[in-house]
Amino acid sequence: MSIFKSLPTAPVAPKRPVSDTRHGITRTDDYAWLRADNWQAMFKDPSILDADIRKHLEAENAYMNAAMEDTKDIQKVLFAEMKGRIKEDDSSVPVKDGPYAYGTLFVTGGEQPRYFREARDGGERTLMLDGDKEAAGKGYFRLAGLDHSVDHAFGIWGYDDKGSEYFTLKIRDLATGEDLSDVVENTGGGGVWAPDGKSFFYSALDENHRPSKVFHHIVGTPQSTDRLVYEEKDPGFFMGVGGSLLDDYIFIDIHDHETSEYRILSTMDLMAEPKLVAAREEGIEYEITEGGDVFYILTNDDDALDFKIMQAPVATPEKEHWTEVVAHKPGTLILSHMAFARHLIWLERKEGLPQIIVRDRETGDEHAIGFAEEAYSLGLHGAAEYDTDTIRFSYSSMTTPSQLYDYNLVTRERTLLKTQEVPSGHDANDYITRRVFAPGWDGVEVPVSLLYRADTVLDGTAPCLLYGYGAYGMAIPASFSTNALSLADRGFVYAIAHIRGGKDKGFSWYEDGKMDKKTNTFKDFIAAADYLNENKFTSYAKIVAEGGSAGGMLMGAIANMAPEKFAGIIAAVPFVDVLNTMLDDTLPLTPPEWPEWGNPIDSKEEYDQIAAYSPYDNVGEKPYPPILALGGLTDPRVTYWEPAKWVARLREKTTGDAPILLKTNMDAGHGGASGRFQRLEEIAFEYGFALKVVGKI
Q1: Is 182 assigned a catalytic role?
Q2: How far apart are CA 69 and CA 688, in angstroms?
């Protein structure tokens, strides 16, 4: 392409065919060698990566750097703009808990958060943990947070310094700021304190990066002596451990993408066996929260597709004792719930928009907290204390910076605590946010959230960045993004396609975008592009598609299905080698993912379904647009070899001359760079690519 000039010769990955036969079907993978045989060990020590693989990835990075050389100046400008919209010395509004209020802050130039506390009603702040100090000298560093004990004497803090998401836990004396000798390794991050502050519970990851065990650690003892509390034998289930607001129960949450099970442990007897609440039933989900003498249970049991809320006595939480509190309302999806001494609260979504519902537990009276904009985002934060009439929530829209409120559940008074500052300036009147609906291939209406400057001419000439995800029931909020303003200010229409596979329009919206209906996700995204083109918000020649992880699968699929409708494609940590990954049950997420995509090992029908759309397997001889794929060497979720193999095959098959680029972060995993400004540099790089392919630089 003329916009990519004087490029060096692109790397050519050697072909080393490996054949695999399943269900009588033989497939040959020429690039299977890019998968390191020692990937488990390499995630913990990247220096042992096979030399041939490292050489290839470095060659790809060199080629990518050459192709993007002329974007370096605009990347610097974009980075400066985005950094200028961040209050560098920002701090959170402290959350009250007992005698203290806890919060986080950043310092000017700092990459990592710092954790502090102060007296409950204000006073001098005490620094408990300095993330910048702990990250010094490390190429990658991610904090898992700081959880204080019930008596406020100690804190558990965790970190990952490889990007592999194996977190190490340490215990800090909050009075002295010194760490104890305890070191707990290979965890999922974080722990739950017992009420006496002398022990805690945590989940441990096995060699395949699965949280398969919950342990009880006593402060001052070696990890090797930790007691095994519960082990999940089924590799198809995730597991996490949490605690109640009243510190009276430890919750062990076991689930995949459609089935869940809870086991609970009373903190009155830490050595007891966890008690089963309701045995797992395929397709039945439930979540529990404490309510004093009852548990409140959010569930889809009895065909409650969009969920309902039940309750059960704490002493007898088994399913036969559940009674209905909030009935199922088709089309109104209950997303989450929490309980306090006098109120039950839940976050729901109807017609794609969220609202918070408050119920008086004694009278049953209900009222809603809602807003009037066409598209917006709500976050329900609740409170750290059970006996309270004040909760916290956040609000934003694509034009309105995030606002944090305290809300009195009795008087219904909203108190604005903080509005997100944009130091370089922001006038919401300069921008327009809209919610439009694109006709889907089968008659559904696909919501699309839009952001653009008020002076943008909508005659088909405006470039557009169209973002999509569409998996796991994750709804993409129409929230404020300071980064997106850099595109809007350059004449872009920034669009979010709320496609099937998410729960943006209820649970059925999710079910219509998974398993045998997965292709609806891809068709919805293309329908959004068609609508934006036909209604002159943009044109095909100006649309840059973007998605990451499962959204990267979306990018691979639409590249195969409609390459002519996109000026460029950005695929971050893209899950594109779907069939091979779902056939490899040693990989971290494979067994838990079978309910989402299908199990091609056991089922030929599901094998065929995945094979029909898996982006890597369906790369064809056609002219692909410019593509930028991004991977992380130690990513345990979407392994680095997926984008590497995909790019190799795309480059082999494409009949066009548009460059196919691969950038592998050799110091990071799934989430990319760990520091707040390092992450901005990555976004500036991606936006630089978008500007380049639409001819804006």
Answers
A1: no
A2: 10
CA-based R_g, the chain, Å: 25
Of 10, 5, 3, the closest CA to residue 660 belongs to 10
Distance CA 279, CA 328 (A): 22
As a whole number of angstroms, the distance between CA 570 and CA 545 comes to: 6
633-661 tens-digit pLDDT: 988 878 999 999 999 999 999 999 999 99
Which residues lie across from 286 on neighbouring strands? 299
Cα separation, 52 vs 204, in Å, equals 33
Identify the pLDDT of residue 1: 46
Residue type (1 letter), 469: Y
Q: In whole angstroms, what is the distance from residue 128 CA to residue 423 CA?
A: 27
Taking a C-beta distance cutoff of 8 angstroms, is the pair 210, 184 a contact? no
Tell me whether residue 675 is exposed, middle or buried, using C-beta atoms within 10 angstroms of its C-beta: 0 to 12, 13 to 18, 19 or more: middle
Burial of 137 (0-12, 13-18, 19+ CB in 10 A): exposed
How many C-beta atoms surround the C-beta of residue 69 within 10 A?
Answer: 11
Q: What is the pTM of this model?
A: 0.90
User: Which of these, 418, 490, 401, lies nearest to 684 by C-alpha position?
Assistant: 490
For residue 691, how far is the Cα from the chain centroid? 26
Contact 203, 240 (CB under 8 A): yes
Q: Give the separation between CA 390 and CA 178, rounded to whole angstroms.
A: 34
Distance (Å, whole) CA 14 – CA 50? 15
Q: Which of 549, 577, 617, 674 is catalytic?
A: 549
Can you spell out the DSSP letters for 96-134?
Answer: EETTEEEEEE--TT--S-EEEEEETT----EEEEEHHHH
Residue 538, token pair as written in the block = 């943009």
Compute the average pLDDT of residues 345-370: 94
* Marked catalytic residue, from 147, 161, 226, 635: 635
Question: Tell me: the pLDDT tens digits for 309-336?
Answer: 999 999 999 999 999 999 999 999 999 9
How far apart CA 196 and CA 662 sit, in angstroms, is 51
**47 is annotated as an active-site residue:** no
The question of whether 255 is a catalytic residue gets the answer: no
Name the β-bridge partners of 327.
Answer: none
